[in-house]
Structure prediction request, 152 residues.
Amino acid sequence: MPSISTTFTTFANVTRSGSIASWSNPSNAESVDASYATCGTLTTPGYTDYLEATGLASTVPDGATITGIVVTVTRKDADGSTKDSSVELIVGGSLSGSNKANTSATWPESDSGANYGASNDMWLNTLTPSMVNASNFGVAISVESGAVEEAP
Prediction:
């Protein structure tokens, strides 16, 4: 079964109701390097705005059947106390489907990738190539608790 590996082209901090911190330098999340999208120290309980990544860098061919979505996020927290709060797809510009956040595991203290979804997991969505190729398709991530959070 063919698969497509791609990145996103647009990164932004998007307000999440009730959040206590926003993401700085969201475009730094585009590459895995020494530049990070960061948010400040969080208090407990508390969570961040969404770090949204939208617009695929490559396209899914018309007529393709989408059977699953895997999102890989390279992340770290120097304090090791940050956890996922929300990891959701953005379809048509709105959060859609299931939340894939792992709210029980803390982020590692050094860069490490985490996969959300699977090749046979549609995140409770029905997706077509035109939906996935739209500039308002992507993923939104919010974290909770901890020290300084970073997403390269």
